[in-house]
Design a protein that fits this description.
Layout: H1 2-20, H2 24-51, H3 60-77, H4 95-110, H5 122-143, H6 154-174, H7 182-202, H8 212-231
């Protein structure tokens, strides 16, 4: 079920991006909505698990490591994760670098899923909501390029396939790790989530005007995540997750 959801979220996003990718406003709105959802999941689900664990007091450095790791990965992806692909010329984004950056990003996010006991956990849904707009942008970029018709589609399909399989592969690897390492991986992913969502939400608007649509979408994303949080069973603090 988890693997199917992860793969479907990427395939659905790429399909929508391929056919509706020229609608830049739609991509932006999806990103903002997912950012509101993601930052709420991060603060209400991921960080509480991190800081109520036995190693909680020393895990702040791993959160910072997650932020720094995402900044490094964005040197490869050129900001795909928060919708910056249209600021660069096509030749400025190398498919191999994009593939590596997105794969590492999604792979690390998948590792903590190995210890998720509940189907449709908020953490899983956070990744799914996060995958949709990224995949939308990915599909728009890969399949609507001017030079797409002149080149083989297989590299594009390979990038999509690797991105779709990255989180399931991370989850598979996570089964071989000691469950006690879960808080450390969650802390790193929490830093990644925090960086991406905050960049999307707090980026300056044109002329610094109030964007009520953006505020509304953030509130909607936050509300959806809070609903998931309320209906999600949370283990008693001090018990194993």
């Amino acid at each position: 079920m988890t693997v199917v959801l992860l793969i479907l979220s990427v395939i659905t996003g790429v399909f929508l991006g391929k056919h509706f990718g020229k609608k830049e406003k739609l991509a932006k709105n999806l990103l903002v909505l997912s950012a509101g959802f993601l930052i709420t999941i991060c603060l209400n689900e991921v960080f509480p698990q991190v800081y109520t664990s036995e190693a909680g007091s020393s895990l702040g450095i791993f959160v910072i490591a997650g932020v720094l790791l995402q900044m490094i990965l964005e040197a490869l992806t050129k900001g795909f994760e928060h919708g910056h692909f249209h600021h660069h010329s096509e030749n400025n984004i190398l498919p191999m670098a994009l593939m590596v950056g997105l794969f590492i990003h999604a792979f690390i996010e998948g590792i903590p899923l190995a210890n998720e006991k509940q189907a449709l956990s908020p953490y899983l849904l956070g990744i799914v909501f996060h995958n949709l707009p990224i995949s939308f942008i990915l599909g728009a970029f890969l399949f609507n390029r001017k030079n797409e018709s002149k080149s083989s589609p297989y590299p594009s399909l390979l990038i999509v396939a690797l991105f779709a399989l990255a989180s399931p592969m991370g989850m598979l690897l996570g089964n071989y790790f000691n469950p006690n390492l879960q808080p450390y991986f969650l802390a790193i992913v929490g830093g990644i989530f925090l960086h991406i969502s905050s960049v999307i939400i707090f980026e300056s608007n044109k002329n610094h005007n109030i964007d009520w649509v953006k505020i509304g979408l953030v509130i909607l994303g936050v509300s959806l995540a809070l609903i998931m949080h309320l209906f999600h069973h949370h283990p008693v603090a001090g018990h194993s997750h």
